[in-house]
Write a structure and sequence with these properties.
By secondary structure, the protein is an alpha/beta fold. The chain has one domain: TIM Barrel (Alpha-Beta Barrel), CATH 3.20.20.70. Helix content is 36%, strand content 18%. Strands 1-2-3-4-5-6-7 form a seven-stranded mixed beta sheet. Helix 1 packs parallel to helix 2. The chain is globular. This is TIGR04100 family radical SAM protein. It holds the Pfam family Radical_SAM. One of its GO terms (molecular function) is 4 iron, 4 sulfur cluster binding.
């Protein structure tokens, strides 16, 4: 069975699903089966809510304050399990909840899911990936039309309802694209984090 929880740096991560509505050119899934100290992250079958709660209860959170929903898939593709397990972990263990997402949840579910996330999530990190629609589509290869616009709208909605929201780009982008991404993020009032490619 694939790992449901794994650690990386100072956080505990939840590998909730292997479903994803993008096929990013740089995705680690196409190169490795593991991240950090995890075992295999490919589920034969995505975990149920009871599996996630059992994994949370079996984990020793001593020294950890944050639970991050980010695995080998887009965590918002398993939205109900994300919300319920995050609520459980927050109430029982006092953990801060972060979701690392591609920002396409509203397109995937066909409705505004930000209020549901806002009930339990403290931090949302959204993969901006590129500063323009053309470059975004080329690198992200999303499963939706108007994905770039939808992702930006999701980010703007999150910024109004969730305490901390940030965009990320990977440091393999050309410097001019990083600067253009920073400018776009600033226009939306959202911090940009340039993350190291792993």
């Amino acid at each position: 069975m694939a790992d449901i929880l794994y650690t990386y740096h100072d956080s505990v991560y939840v590998n909730l699903t292997n479903k994803c509505d993008c096929a990013c050119t740089f995705c680690i899934r196409s190169h490795h089966d593991t991240v950090g100290e995890s075992g295999n992250l490919w589920h034969e079958k995505d975990p149920e809510l009871s599996d996630v709660i059992a994994a949370v209860d079996a984990f020793d959170f001593t020294g950890y304050q944050e639970l991050v929903y980010c695995g080998y898939g887009e965590p918002t593709c398993a939205l109900d399990i994300l919300i319920e397990s995050a609520k459980y972990a927050k109430e029982k263990y006092g953990l801060r909840i972060r979701v690392n997402t591609n920002g396409l949840a509203n397109l995937y579910h066909g409705r505004d899911v930000v209020p549901e996330l806002a009930e339990v999530v403290d931090v949302v990190s959204i993969s901006l990936n590129a500063p323009t629609e053309e470059k975004y589509v080329a690198v992200t290869r999303p499963g939706f039309d108007h994905a770039f616009e939808g992702m930006l709208a999701f980010a703007a909605a999150c910024a109004k309802q969730i305490p901390e929201v940030k965009f990320t780009v990977v440091d393999v982008l050309p410097e001019e694209d990083i600067e253009a991404s920073r400018k776009l993020a600033e226009e939306l009032g959202i911090h940009l984090r340039v993350r190291k490619y792993v």
